[in-house]
Structure formats: structure tokens, C-alpha cells
Amino acid sequence: MHSMDENSVPDAARTVLTGDDIERVLTRVAYEIIEANKGTDDLVLLGIPSRGFPLAQRLATRIAATADGNLDPASLVGQLDITMYRDDLRHSTTRTPAPTRLPAGGIEGKVVVLVDDVLYSGRTIRAALDALADWGRPRIVRLAVLVDRGHRELPIRADHVGKNLPTAKSEKVRVHLAEIDGTNEVVIEGAA
Ligand SMILES: O=P(O)(O)OC[C@H]1O[C@H](OP(=O)(O)OP(=O)(O)O)[C@H](O)[C@@H]1O
Ligand SMILES: O=c1cc[nH]c(=O)[nH]1
């Protein structure tokens, strides 16, 4: 608990994206992905567990809907486990790896869009690039994130950003998605 005086900032959670905001943002990002790829050919969306996967599914549903019912969203989407590739493996508590699942067409020669909820230091994405190399050689790898909160520690940037969110390092961005958390919202916790 922080002591409160008239100058202190309460560290209650602030909602920065509502469920409706998330829906709108994902629709825009889906169109950006199609635009960058000049269509849907060879597209594969790989979500990074845990919340990157439902986001990848939501994007795949939107992208498939632009193809007049000729595209099954499931054929576009998969998930990429990065647990064993993290650079903090020796220091962190044990995490149960989520299985990597690739769509039936694999990733060889494809345009792979990695999808995650938050981009912060960039270390998760560095690990994802290593993990990906074990599964094949995509033609192009791009990155889509719901929130870029800054504070990068590696030379990594996102191609598609739902919302750029300036944050203090002391804050935490929490993404809640119905598929995992039962609600849809993005909140910032902690004092700025
Ligand atoms: O850019 P970075 O500094 O790597 O931070 C971003 C990552 O941190 C969070 O994952 P977390 O490890 O908390 O796991 P989770 O997705 O299971 O919540 C978030 O979902 C991103 O994957
Ligand atoms: O604030 C943060 C930092 C890393 N990952 C998150 O999900 N939130």
C-alpha cells in the first residue's frame, strides 16, 4: 500500500482500451496486415501464448471474412511457444510450455505475422524469432501487437500496433481477453 497525501497518485487500475476499443483496433490491424501483404496469400498468424493466441484468432477471423467465405480462419492461425527460448530462463520461475501449433500449410516460405498483446522490452519477440527458426524459414516475418508500451531493450519494433501507450517503467499494462480472462479490456496499473 502507498501512503496517500494530497500529491500522491493513487495506483488504481486505469482503463486505456475498452472491449469496443479492442474490437475496433483489431479490425484496423487486420486491414493493415492485408494491405501490407497485398491480400491474404501465404499469410500465417502465429500468436504468442498466452494472450497472443486469441488475438491471432480474432485477427484471422477478420482477415478470412474479407475473402468471401473462401478462406477458413483456422488455416491462417497457430501458436508459437517461446518458453525454452527466453533469455531469463535461468532466473524465472518455472512456466509450463504451451504447445506450438502451426497451421496445416506450415511456415516454410510463408509471410508469418507474430501476434502478441504487449510489446515492452522486446525480449519475448527475440525469443519468438529463435523459436520460429526451429520450425522453418518464412519468407517474411512481421510483428503485430495490441499495445506498444515502449521501454525497448533490443532493436525490435512492431509493424502493426493497435495502440502506442506511453508508460512509466513502474507501471504494468494488463490485457484482459474474454477467451482467457472473461472480460475484454486493457488497463494500466501502478503509479506513474
Ligand atoms: O517485450 P517483453 O518485455 O518481452 O514483454 C512483453 C511480454 O510480456 C507479457 O508476457 P508474459 O511473459 O507476462 O506472459 P503472459 O503472456 O503469459 O502473460 C506479454 O504478454 C508479452 O508477451
Ligand atoms: O506491463 C507489461 C510488461 C510486459 N508485459 C505485459 O503484459 N505488461
UniProtKB/TrEMBL annotation:
Function as written in the Swiss-Prot or TrEMBL entry: Regulates the transcription of the pyrimidine nucleotide (pyr) operon in response to exogenous pyrimidines.
Protein name: Bifunctional protein PyrR
Lineage: Bacteria, Bacillati, Actinomycetota, Actinomycetes, Micrococcales
Signal peptide (residue range): none
HAMAP family, sorted: PyrR
EC number: 2.4.2.9
Keywords, in A-Z order: Glycosyltransferase, Transcription, Transcription regulation, Transferase
Annotated InterPro entries: PRTase-like (IPR029057), PRTase_dom (IPR000836), PyrR (IPR023050), PyrR_bifunctional (IPR050137)
Domain of life: Bacteria
Motif PRPP-binding, residue range(s) on this chain: 112-124
Catalyses which reaction(s): UMP + diphosphate = 5-phospho-alpha-D-ribose 1-diphosphate + uracil
NCBIfam families hit by this protein: PRK05205.1-3, PRK05205.1-5
Residue ranges constituting the Phosphoribosyltransferase domain according to the UniProt record: 19-163
Protein family according to the UniProt entry: Belongs to the purine/pyrimidine phosphoribosyltransferase family. PyrR subfamily.
Molecular function as annotated in GO: glycosyltransferase activity
Xref: Pfam families: Pribosyltran
